[in-house]
Design brief:
The chain is mostly helical. It has one domain (8-66). 81% of the residues lie in helices and 0% in strands. The protein is built from two helices and no strands. It is elongated, with a radius of gyration of 25 Å.
Length: 67
């Protein structure tokens, strides 16, 4: 990579060259992998939401007995 010239334009150009080089290294998932990963995220998000909801109900019930 070349040394930036020190000017704002030179630094910006250098930055975008670096971004372009890194984007070429990215391994993008296939459509099937993307669908599988999305499903996993949705299922885990639902489980976490359900767990938080149940804990909220238990804590609310416990506090209402105390108060």
């Amino acid at each position: 990579m070349t040394a930036p010239t020190g000017t704002k334009k030179g630094k910006l150009t250098s930055y975008f060259r670096g971004v372009r080089a890194e984007m070429k290294k990215v391994i993008w998932p296939s459509k099937k992998e993307l669908i599988n990963y999305t499903g996993v995220v949705l299922v885990i998000s639902g489980l976490v939401a359900l767990t938080v909801w149940i804990l909220d109900l238990l804590i609310n019930g416990g506090l209402s007995l105390i108060i």
